[in-house]
Each structure stands twice: as C-alpha cells, then as structure tokens.
C-alpha cells in the first residue's frame, strides 16, 4: 500500500509540512526532510521551485526564486533524493508546477519518482480534467497518488468529481487566496470546513493555506484529517536557518 | 487546390455530395443540358460550400433572379458573355467565373478584357457542346498562361487523370490553378454523381489539407490544435469557468453587440482607415496598405478588447477590474474603459516598467486607476501577469481580469481574438472598396502575445489564398541571447494558463525575453499563433531592434506617420522579403509612436 494511504489510516491528526527544495541553501533539502521526520511531522511536500508560481504568495515565490538561483533543477532534486528512502520512511510528496514536469517528460518524471520512493504529486496548475484524460494512467502505472485542490468556491458537483478521481486525500484550500499565512480562521472558513466534512467524501481532507501556528492547526484539524503548513515554515527557515526545524514543529504541535 | 463538383441535379444526391465537403457545387441553368437544374430549390448546404450557377448566354435578369432565389455565391458563364455583362454582375456580391474552351492551342489575349472584372477563369475542353464533352485538353497549353488571375481546370477530369494531375501540379502551368472542376466522369447517369468515385478522388494529394479541413479556430475544449487549454490552479476554476460558459452567449446578444459596435464607433473612432501607403509602396515596388489602428482612441488596437471585456464584466455583474500591463498601453486602455464605466481599476505593472514608462503610469493614475508595482521575479510584464492572476485568486467573486493579449487560459485567447476581429472584418470591406477584392495577397502583423495579429488574421484564417505573416521581435538578434523570437527560441510548454510555445530553460523555467519594444517583450505567444506556426499556416519572420527602428523612422519620412515600435517591426519586413509589384499587402499599424518618443530620441540621437 502507498505510504500516503497507510498514513491516512493512522488514528491521529496529521501534520504535513511544505518546504522549497534547495532553500535556503542548495544542499539543505535532505537534512530538512530528515529533521522534519525526526521531530514528528507526518508527511512532507517537497517543493520543486518554478520561476512563475501563480498559486503562491510572496514567501514561497521568493524562496523559489532563491532556490533556482542556488542552482536547483529537477535533475538536481532527483539526485539529492537518490538515497532518501534509506533514512526516511514517512510519505513524501513532490509539489510543483506542471511546466518543469512537462519538460522532463511526464512519464519519465513519474518513473523517477517511483524509483526514488516518492508517494505522490501535487501539481496546482494541472487541472483535474486534463489529468483524468491524459495522465491518470501514467500516474497509476508508477504507483503515484495525485492530490487535487478544492476551495470554498468549488461547487459540490465538482468536489464529488474530484473525489471520484482521487485516491489519497483532498487538499482543502482554506480560503480564496494564494499561499501565505493569515491571522486565524473566521466563521466563513469554519462553515466551509463543516460543509465539506458533512459531504462524507471517499477521500480524507487535509487543509492547507493560512495555517501558521498551533491555534490554526487545531482549528483546521477539528474538521479535517490533517493540515499542511508551507509559508510559515519557509519564513521560519529564512529567519532561523535549516537547522531550526525542531523549534518550529514543537511550536505547532504543543 | 479547391474542388468543384458540377452538374448537380437530384436532391438526395446533392446532400450526399455535399457531405464530402467540396468547395463549390455547380447547378446548370441551361435547358439544352442533360443536367439542367429545374427543381424548385436547392437543399440546405453547409455554409462552406459555394453554390454556383452555370449559365450559357442567359438573359442577365434570369441570372440575377437565380442568384437571389437560390442564394448563389458564384456564377459560371459558359457562353459569349461580354466583359460588360460580367461587370453588371459585379455588384451582386458573388464570384464570377468566365469559361474559355481550349482545344490544342489557345489565344490568351481574349482573357485580357475580362481581367479585373471576373474573379476566376475556367478552362475546359472545346467540343461540340458548351461544356460536358467528357475529354481533357492538353494542359501544357497553360504553360503560357500570361495572367495571374486564378483559374479552374475543367473538362473530362476523372479518376484516370490522377497521375496527370500530379504531374500538372509540379509544372509551371499549375501556378495559378485554383481549383479542379469535375462532372461527367463521376456519374452513374447525367446529373447523378457516383459517391464512391468522388470519395476516391478526394483522397488524392492535390486536395491534401482540404480533405481534413484544417481548423485554425479554437475547438470546444479550448484548443487550437495541440495548443491552448486552461492550465489553471483550482482556485481560478470558478472564475474562468463562469467566463467560459458565458462569453459566447453574451457576445452574441443583440444588446451587447449594439453597445459594443456603438462604442467602437463613437468612442474609439472606428472604422479605422485602411490607408494606401503610396510612397512606401513606390519604394518597395508593391502595394502596401496600412490598417490604421494607431488612430484609435488611446493610440492602439488594445482598446477594442478592453471595450469588449468591460461590457462583458458588466454583464457578469463584476465591480472590480484588474489588468496587467508591460509598456502601459493595455493598462491605459483598461483604465480608460473603467473610467468610462465607473468601475474600480487596479493595474499591475512590473517595477522596472513603471520606472521606464512614466507617462503611461501618469495617464493611468489620471484616469483613476491604481497602479500596483510587481516586485517579484524580473519585475516586468511576465511578473505583472503573475500578480494579476494572484489578485484574481484572492478576489474570485467580484473581480474581472481583463487580459490584454491573446493569451491566458481558455476562453481568453478566443475572447480577445473575437473582440479584436473587428480589424479584419473592416479590412475585408475596405479592401473591396479600394481594390475590388476582399482578400489581400498578404496580411502582416507584429506579435508579442499576439492580440493585434489575432484580430488582423481572424477573418482570413481560412482564406488560404491569403498568406499570413507574423513578425516577432528578434531583439539584438535571434541568437544573441537578447531576443523575444518565441517561434524560433521557444518550446512547447505552459505559461499563464495555456499550452503554447514559450522561451524556457531545459528545466522548464520561463526565461526573460528582450526587445526594445515593450509590447513584444513577452516570453510566450498566444496559442492560436503557436498553432499557425506549427501548421505553417503563417510565416514567422524576426526583426531586430535596429531593423524595426529604421523602418519606424522611414514611415515617418515617407508617410508622415510615427508608428509604435511594435508596429515598426511589421513594417521592417519589406527590407527582408521581396514582394511582386501587384501584390496587395495589408500591414496592421497597431499603435502610434507617441509613447516611444524617448526611445526614438535615444536611438537616433535626435
């Protein structure tokens, strides 16, 4: 069974962390992954940087720009992850934009992910219908789970469709926004969290966007299986460096 | 080559033949013919098929009556009809074919009086009857064809001639051969066509490109061939989907059309003139017309699209408008229509562009828009576009994003193209007035994202007698590393929500283009243009900064028009490519050069 599905079966709320590969320094990728696991994180999204990350706010865009300057490429990332499964056992997901994968070759990319022990992909600008029509077979051939996003504006009908195509979890974007921390969730968000929880979907949901501390993590996981933190973590390593992972995770889980 | 099937008679048979999509179907209105069409009406045919009436010295009123009654798009004159007779039919908005019969030799001087009056000549075999004799003439006679008027080749063509047709196509004689006309060799009995034989004939290479009629328009899924689509994050899906479901419906509402047309007329100042550039034409020894988009309100074609989109936004009950801009032209055009409609306007513009385009920034502010600097990435157009898209993600309900070029996720490229299509719509009737033909030999436009080009080409995309030229900015030279020639330097990929050709690293990171012209300084090209490039429907040329600047200055001196540097790229092709003296070339003069004065001053040390 895919590590993501196994993890989702565990009787606990999941903490998932996103970070930009090759940031703050090109060789921080592996140590950040190892430290996240060591400190109790359940799942990791490894951000493959892109020059034009449309769905991201300023924090992740800046980290992506820096990572590219540091020399990060698809090939470099794959090399860094060569032995990752010797030391890390939690689910690993690569999150990136479609063009770099398209240039690498979608099938070659998926094949490489399988070789390295990557469990899933999140590609915000690969729409569900294009995936369904052209790429689902390839992803499944290499045992990869593709994770789709839903937002407060996504219609119930479309959520059902996305649920039917998904075979891991659904990434619930907390509000109409790009990535980047905001201050807490209001009634609008909690109503939306409740609405989705009541839909009784086949796939569990993990909430992302706007989760930055213990309070927002607790609020989000009240209604969902877990939560994803991205920008807040990237900000943290920007300020405190790649060796400060423990302090951040502690501050979320305490 | 086009195909005409002549001598249609029976209703069901007509429908069957029509399903094979020939370009012309011929109906003979001549009592002495075994194929005389004496039925009340012609069944409904696909619009792409031109109904052609065939006459032999008929009274002109009879011809006019048949044109009206059957909605004929062409008449074929088989008798001794005079040039004056043909002239009288010119006003009927039909194509006119004059038939000449050839035996072993032919005195081509008889064509002369008909030149410029008829649209096509049709050559068939001289025999006992006026047409339909069932055998071919010696096509090599046409090696001496002295005219450039395209002609139909007719007379006894059947499946046995397939090899001869191949040879003919490789000979000089076929240069002006526009179509093949077939009839009796494909019949079971006079007037009843053999569908199986017709199918076989349509497979021959002469009709390649016609059997699968190439579509240059967007398909129902938002693709031009393999390009286009909507590669957008889920956060944008509801906005884009709302637009996709409504744009065609709204655009075809009579109220919308009226308001759009009215504003284009009264506010923008359309139609923009189609100007015969006499001195420029003399210099390059050809016939150059300029489509004067520079004379529009705000100084460029951009306003055509912003007027359309602001009306769209209002129909969709949006109250807040966002836009991206490079040089500021689209930003000004957007700020203008927002002022006109009293809507809030936010324009994203790269920090670097804000610094180098101060007058346009001031204009936008005077018009009441808020100009927000894009501080990320390279801080130019590409990043301004990213910021506008992010704004839209954050404001999904009340905001409409007015994209300025023929790019972005479907339906944007198609919607922008349709709003800009007024350019080619006007060229058609304007050229008809001035040159007595709707179609030029060449249509030329510069391409950044490609909105003025899309509008200039739109009504000519499927008129294969019109050559399309797309002019890209080569910057300091295509191989200099400082260029924006996407068709040469780009690869297939995804940018700003669509699959198209774009400049990128091997790793799929989008790179920064360069051109002296801010409007052409974009790393991608609209998906329609990527398709035109890939299918070779359009010829792509690249023009350097230097060539463009010189062409711009030349237009000032020869015609008293200061063009935008973008448009100067299109004008520079005359130094690169030679045209024939009687070629008619329409160049889109997309914008005026006021905004570029400083550039011109710096460049020429004026």
TrEMBL record, chain A:
Family: Belongs to the TrpA family.
Species whose genome carries this gene: Wocania arenilitoris
InterPro entries: Aldolase_TIM (IPR013785), RibuloseP-bd_barrel (IPR011060), Trp_synthase_alpha_AS (IPR018204), Trp_synthase_suA (IPR002028)
GO molecular function: tryptophan synthase activity
Active site: 45 (proton acceptor), 56 (proton acceptor)
Keyword ATP-binding tagged: no
EC top class named in words: lyase
Family matches, as PANTHER family: TRYPTOPHAN SYNTHASE ALPHA CHAIN, CHLOROPLASTIC, TRYPTOPHAN SYNTHASE, ALPHA CHAIN
CDD domains: Tryptophan_synthase_alpha
Pathway entry: Amino-acid biosynthesis; L-tryptophan biosynthesis; L-tryptophan from chorismate: step 5/5
Lineage of origin: Bacteria, Pseudomonadati, Bacteroidota, Flavobacteriia, Flavobacteriales
E.C. code: 4.2.1.20
GO cellular component: cytosol
Biological role stated in the UniProt entry: The alpha subunit is responsible for the aldol cleavage of indoleglycerol phosphate to indole and glyceraldehyde 3-phosphate.
Pfam families in alphabetical order: Trp_syntA (PF00290)
The protein, known as: Tryptophan synthase alpha chain
Catalytic activity, reaction form: (1S,2R)-1-C-(indol-3-yl)glycerol 3-phosphate + L-serine = D-glyceraldehyde 3-phosphate + L-tryptophan + H2O
UniProt keywords, alphabetically: Amino-acid biosynthesis, Aromatic amino acid biosynthesis, Lyase, Tryptophan biosynthesis
Assembly and binders: Tetramer of two alpha and two beta chains.
UniProtKB/TrEMBL annotation, chain B:
Tryptophan synthase beta chain-like PALP domain location: 269-591
Post-translational modification N6-(pyridoxal phosphate)lysine, affected residues: 302
Keyword set includes Isomerase: yes
Gene Ontology CC terms: cytoplasm
Pathway the protein contributes to: Amino-acid biosynthesis; L-tryptophan biosynthesis; L-tryptophan from chorismate: step 3/5; Amino-acid biosynthesis; L-tryptophan biosynthesis; L-tryptophan from chorismate: step 5/5
Swiss-Prot/TrEMBL catalytic activity: N-(5-phospho-beta-D-ribosyl)anthranilate = 1-(2-carboxyphenylamino)-1-deoxy-D-ribulose 5-phosphate; (1S,2R)-1-C-(indol-3-yl)glycerol 3-phosphate + L-serine = D-glyceraldehyde 3-phosphate + L-tryptophan + H2O
Keywords: Amino-acid biosynthesis, Aromatic amino acid biosynthesis, Isomerase, Lyase, Pyridoxal phosphate, Tryptophan biosynthesis
Domain N-(5'phosphoribosyl) anthranilate isomerase (PRAI) span(s) in chain numbering: 4-203
Enzyme Commission number: 5.3.1.24, 4.2.1.20
Transmembrane segments: none
InterPro entries reported for this sequence: Aldolase_TIM (IPR013785), PRAI_dom (IPR001240), RibuloseP-bd_barrel (IPR011060), Trp_synth_b_CS (IPR006653), Trp_synth_beta (IPR006654), Trp_synth_beta/beta-like (IPR023026), TrpB-like_PALP (IPR001926), TrpB-like_PALP_sf (IPR036052)
Cofactors (names): pyridoxal 5'-phosphate
Molecular-function annotations in GO: phosphoribosylanthranilate isomerase activity; tryptophan synthase activity
Subunit and interaction comment: Tetramer of two alpha and two beta chains.
Described function: The beta subunit is responsible for the synthesis of L-tryptophan from indole and L-serine.
Similarity comment text for this entry: Belongs to the TrpF family.
Protein name: Multifunctional fusion protein
Species in which this protein is naturally found: Wocania arenilitoris
């Amino acid at each position: 069974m895919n590590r993501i599905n196994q993890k989702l079966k565990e009787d606990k709320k999941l903490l998932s962390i996103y970070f930009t590969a090759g940031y703050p320094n090109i060789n921080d990728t592996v140590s950040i992954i190892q430290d996240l696991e060591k400190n109790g994180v359940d799942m990791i999204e490894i951000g493959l940087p892109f020059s034009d990350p449309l769905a991201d706010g300023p924090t992740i865009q800046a980290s992506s720009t820096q990572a590219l300057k540091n020399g990060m490429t698809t090939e470099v990332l794959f090399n860094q992850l060569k032995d990752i499964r010797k030391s890390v056992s939690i689910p690993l997901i690569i999150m990136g934009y479609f063009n770099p994968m398209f240039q690498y070759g979608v099938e070659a990319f998926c094949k490489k992910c399988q070789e390295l022990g990557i469990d899933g992909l999140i590609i915000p600008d690969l729409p569900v219908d294009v995936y369904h029509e052209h790429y689902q077979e390839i992803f499944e051939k290499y045992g990869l789970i593709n994770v789709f996003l839903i937002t407060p504006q996504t219609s119930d009908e479309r959520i059902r469709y996305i649920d039917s195509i998904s075979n891991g979890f659904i990434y619930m974007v907390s509000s109409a926004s790009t990535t980047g921390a905001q201050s807490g969730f209001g009634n609008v968000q909690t109503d939306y969290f409740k609405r989705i929880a009541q839909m009784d979907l086949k796939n569990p949901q993990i909430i992302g966007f706007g989760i930055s501390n213990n309070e927002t993590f607790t609020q989000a996981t009240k209604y969902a299986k877990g939560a994803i933190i991205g920008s807040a973590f990237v900000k943290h390593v920007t300020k405190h460096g790649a060796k400060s992972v423990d302090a951040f995770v502690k501050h979320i889980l305490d | 080559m086009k195909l005409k099937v002549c001598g249609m008679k029976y209703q069901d048979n007509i429908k069957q033949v029509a399903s094979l999509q020939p370009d012309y179907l011929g109906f003979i209105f001549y009592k002495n013919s075994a194929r005389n069409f004496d039925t009340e009406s012609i069944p409904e045919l696909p619009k792409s098929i031109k109904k052609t009436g065939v006459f032999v010295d008929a009274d002109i009123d009879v011809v006019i009556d048949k044109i009206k009654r059957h909605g004929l798009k062409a008449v074929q004159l088989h008798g001794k009809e005079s040039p004056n007779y043909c002239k009288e039919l010119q006003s009927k908005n039909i194509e006119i074919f004059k038939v000449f019969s050839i035996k072993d030799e032919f005195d081509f001087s008889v064509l002369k009086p008909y030149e410029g009056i008829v649209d096509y000549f049709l050559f068939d075999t001289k025999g006992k009857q006026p047409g339909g004799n069932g055998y071919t003439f010696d096509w090599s006679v046409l090696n001496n064809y002295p005219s450039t008027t395209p002609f139909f080749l007719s007379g006894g063509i059947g499946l046995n001639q397939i090899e001869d047709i191949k040879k003919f196509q490789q000979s000089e004689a076929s240069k002006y051969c526009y179509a093949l006309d077939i009839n009796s060799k494909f019949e079971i009995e006079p007037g009843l066509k053999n569908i199986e034989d017709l199918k076989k004939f349509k497979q021959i290479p002469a009709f390649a490109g016609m059997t699968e009629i190439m579509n240059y328009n967007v398909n129902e899924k938002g693709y031009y061939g393999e390009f286009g689509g909507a590669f957008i994050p889920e956060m944008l899906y509801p906005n884009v989907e709302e637009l996709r479901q409504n744009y065609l419906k709204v655009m075809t509402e009579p109220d919308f059309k009226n308001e759009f047309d009215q504003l284009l007329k009264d506010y923008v100042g359309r139609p923009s003139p189609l100007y015969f550039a006499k001195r420029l034409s003399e210099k390059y020894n050809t016939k150059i017309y300029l489509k004067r988009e520079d004379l529009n309100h705000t100084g460029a074609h951009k306003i055509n699209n912003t007027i359309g989109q602001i009306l769209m936004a209002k129909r969709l009950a949006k109250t807040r408008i966002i836009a991206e801009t490079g040089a500021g032209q689209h930003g000004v055009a957007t700020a203008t229509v927002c002022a006109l409609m009293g809507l809030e306007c936010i324009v994203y513009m790269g920090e670097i562009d804000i610094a180098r385009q101060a007058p346009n920034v001031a204009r936008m502010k005077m018009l009441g828009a808020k100009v927000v600097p894009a501080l990320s990435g390279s801080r130019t157009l590409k990043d301004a576009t990213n910021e506008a898209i992010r704004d839209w993600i954050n404001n999904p309900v009340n905001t409409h994003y007015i994209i300025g070029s023929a790019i972005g996720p479907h339906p944007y490229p198609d919607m922008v193209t349709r709003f800009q299509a007024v350019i080619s719509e006007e060229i058609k009737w304007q050229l008809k007035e001035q040159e007595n033909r709707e179609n030029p030999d060449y249509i030329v436009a510069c391409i950044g994202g490609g909105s003025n080009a899309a509008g200039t080409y739109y009504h000519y995309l499927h008129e294969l007698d019109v050559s399309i030229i797309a002019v890209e900015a080569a910057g300091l030279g295509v191989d200099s590393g400082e260029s924006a020639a996407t068709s040469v330097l780009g690869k297939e990929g995804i940018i700003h929500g669509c699959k198209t050709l774009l400049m990128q690293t091997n790793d799929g990171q989008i790179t920064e283009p360069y051109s002296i012209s801010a409007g052409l300084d974009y790393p991608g090209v609209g998906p329609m243009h990527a398709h035109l490039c890939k299918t070779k429907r359009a010829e792509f040329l690249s023009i350097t900064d230097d060539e463009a600047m010189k062409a711009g200055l030349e237009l000032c001196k020869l015609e008293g028009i200061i063009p935008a540097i973008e448009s100067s790229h299109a004008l520079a092709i005359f130094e690169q490519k030679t045209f024939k003296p009687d070629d008619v070339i329409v160049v889109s003069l997309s914008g005026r050069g006021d905004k570029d004065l400083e550039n011109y001053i710096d460049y020429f040390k004026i």
